[in-house]
Amino acid sequence: FTTRKIQAGLNEICMMLAIGAVRDDMKEFTPEAEACLDDVAHFVRLYHLFMWGRFSHAYSIVVSEKGMNRMLTRGLITNDQFRCLQVQDDGISAHHTCISWIGMRIYQGIDEGGIKDDMALKMEILNRINFVRSSQSDVGDIIDGRMSLAYAHLVQMLVDVLLITSPFALYAQQGIWAILTVGVLTVFYAGVLDLSKMYLDPLDNDGLYDDSVNMDLGVLMNEMNVGAAEWKKGAMFVPF
Predict the structure, then answer these.
(1) What is the per-residue pLDDT across 167-186, written as a single tens digit (0 to 9) for each?
(2) How far is it, in rounded angstroms, from Cα 180 to Cα 81?
(3) 114-146 burial code (b ≥16 CB/10 A, e <16)
(4) How far apart, in Å, are the Cα atoms of 62 and each of 19, 28, 91, 92?
(5) What are the φ/ψ torsions at residue 220 (nearest 5 degrees)?
(6) Closest Cα partner for 118 from 46, 150, 126, 236?
(7) Are 228 and 13 in contact (CB under 8 A)?
(8) The pTM is what?
(9) Does 228 have pLDDT greater than 80?
(10) Of 154, 185, 153, 155, which is closest to residue 168 (Cα–Cα)?
């Protein structure tokens, strides 16, 4: 749910910019407006990528110097952006830098005349930026503030004791059928326990379950990459 709130906040920023972009006499975006929309969409993509690179071990390479060098050679970031990002401490604050760029580029677009200088629009965009930042902090809190280790150990011991003693407890009543019953108990109790452990580590940062179904961050990133540009495309032409 938190991941969707972050996506929604970023999409709303792009949507409000597309609505507030200045148009010429042909009802098309002015060059200043188009440049601002493109830059903000680019920073939105970078922010979303670096944010998950900060929280997920699987994507941590993107916030490293090696990963950013690769992005530079592929043209995903410019030389100026690369230089600014390298000032950060091992990429830990790269997503913070990008979300700051979003706000600063919007204000620059307003000063250049590409975005309408409307106080309500500026306040609402700032509210959305703050909303995204606070939602992003919730992701870190959820990952760091997991269930206490003592409770997890207690539940593990309870399940283990139950499954170990089940054959002896059930044999007196069920006889040979106790084998089947214990198998069913093992599948359900041990399976639910493993599933609960996966919920404690949805990003698979611990790497304990190679074959488990965890959050596919690639899908979220792809959705955000598409969403960052679709608002400009949708508002490119107007019928009035």
Answers:
(1) 888 888 888 888 888 888 88
(2) 62
(3) bbbeeeebbeebeebbebbbebbeebeeeeeee
(4) 32, 36, 8, 11
(5) -60, -40
(6) 126
(7) no
(8) 0.79
(9) yes
(10) 185
Tokens of residue 167, six digits: 């054959």
Cα separation, 109 vs 166, in Å, equals: 69
At position 1, the amino acid (one-letter code) is F
CB 125 within 8 A of CB 17: yes
Domain definitions of the chain by residue range = 1-146+215-236, 149-200
Between 28 and 89, whose confidence is greater?
28
Beta bridge pairs of residue 29: 23
- pLDDT tier at 107, thresholds 50, 70, 90: very high
With tokens 């608002």, the residue in question is: 231
The DSSP code for 159 is H
Selection from 187, 98, 104 nearest residue 136 by Cα: 98
Closest C-alpha to 125, from 2, 5, 14: 14
Q: Which two tokens stand for residue 161?
A: 């004791």
Q: What is the DSSP letter of 29?
A: B
Which pair of tokens denotes residue 198? 């996966």
Q: What is the H or E stretch that residue 58 is in? A: none
Higher pLDDT, 37 or 163: 37
Give CA separation, 99 vs 33, 69, 134, 163, 189, in Å.
19, 20, 12, 50, 44
Residue labelled with tokens 């955000």:
224
Average pLDDT over the chain, rounded to an integer:
85
Would you state the pLDDT for residue 149?
67
